[in-house]
Amino acid sequence: MDRTWKESYDQLTKEAYEEIRRGNFKTAMDLFDLARKLAESAGDQKEIDRSVCNMSTVHLCLGDFRAAEHGLREILLRCTDPQILFIASANLGSSLSKQGRIHRAFFYCKKALAESAFLEPHWKAIARNRLANLYLMQSYFQEAISEYRTALQIAREAGLADRWPTEHYLDNLGYCLILVGEYREGILHIHEALGLARPRRNQRCITECFQDLSFAYMQLRSLRKAELYGRRALGMALRKQYTDIVKTCYYLLGEIHFLQGNEKDSDFYFGKLQEFYPGLDFLTDFLKTFDVSKILNFKNPS
Questions:
Q1: Residue 287: inside a domain, yes or no?
Q2: How far apart are CA 10 and CA 47, in angstroms?
Q3: Backbone angles phi, psi at 158, to 5 degrees
Q4: Which of these, 168, 224, 258, 261, is most buried using a 10 Å CB contact count?
Q5: 10 Å Cβ neighbour count for 142?
Q6: Which domain holds residue 257?
Q7: Which of 39, 50, 138 is nearest to 86 (CA)?
Q8: Among 47, 111, 38, 34, CA closest to 73
Q9: At 255, phi and psi to the nearest 5?
Q10: Does residue 270 lie in a domain region?
């Protein structure tokens, strides 16, 4: 096969990443799969590996954490390309962390950080954001805040402050600041993230920002604002099939209505959440008895 396949491969990959930036993950997966098939037909192992890594990224976005690790270890054993090694390591770390395998997750996350030393600042910032996400999941909030700030600093110093995925760094930092009670600064950063995400139609980031603002205003007991942002986040999450955000919004809206004394609406949203956990028939009563908003981390950071 002549090299014209590579032009089609590169175009498919470019279009797929644009769909990721817009939060259209299933479309991105289809495009990456077409690119992989082209690479397989050409027998180009390097580009096959790159496609597998790219598809792994989409699996993470979709919440398919076990599927996301498929083939990555083999790539780490045979590949020498720093960018591919970075993506494989970072994605494997993220996948394992979502499955509760934290020790191995940190290992691969640190490996990705080491690989980023050979890459452009864009990748260095992503590495710091991924490490921060892992700290956030473990409730090491100060460490997470430090890494998010580092990611932003790298992006700004490299002239990337207005480029994707800086909006995610801002939103993640804002959410983490809210968790430690720095509401004013946290809300400000989330609005900064919205300001970047809206013009480029980053639906995933916009939805996360609405979710995080709902959480922030619930903590501040500004319940009307919390409800409005929660409803906006839920509507977008349902349309885009962001299941993790759907579940979080059902909880947030259930808790918000409970705090407002709207028992019927509270039961409705907690009931919708319970549908995801059919074995936990006590969930609604538990959530109405105990305030878990200060002890559980609901965010699946991008």
A1: yes
A2: 10
A3: -90, 5
A4: 168
A5: 10
A6: 222-301
A7: 50
A8: 111
A9: -70, -40
A10: yes
Number of domains in the chain: 1
Tokens 């054993």 sit at which residue?
77
Burial class (CB in 10 A: 0-12, 13-18, 19+), 183: middle
Question: Quick one: tokens of 119?
Answer: 């890459």
Query: Do you know the residue count of the chain?
Result: 302
Write the pLDDT tens digit of every residue in 130-157: 999 999 988 999 999 999 999 999 999 9
Residue 78 forms part of a structural domain: no
| SS3 readout for the chain | CCCHHHHHHHHHHHHHHHHHHCCCHHHHHHHHHHHHHHHHHHCCHHHHHHHHHHHHHHHHHHCCHHHHCCCHHHHHHHCCCHHHHHHHHHHHHHHHHHCCCHHHHHHHHHHHHHHHHHCCHHHHHHHHHHHHHHHHHCCCHHHHHHHHHHHHHHHHHCCCCCCCCHHHHHHHHHHHHHHCCCHHHHHHHHHHHHHHHCCCCCHHHHHHHHHHHHHHHHHCCCHHHHHHHHHHHHHHHHHHCCHHHHHHHHHHHHHHHHHHCCHHHHHHHHHHHHCCCCCCCCHHHHHHHCCCCCCCCCCCCC
According to the model, what pLDDT value does residue 2 have?
59
CA–CA distance, 243 with 192 (Å, rounded to integer): 25
| Structure confidence at residue 197 (pLDDT) | 96
Angstrom distance (rounded) from CA 197 to CA 22: 9
For 239-248, letters b (16+ CB in 10 Å) and e give: ebebebbbbb
- Write out the two tokens for 50: 């790159």
| pTM for the full predicted model | 0.88
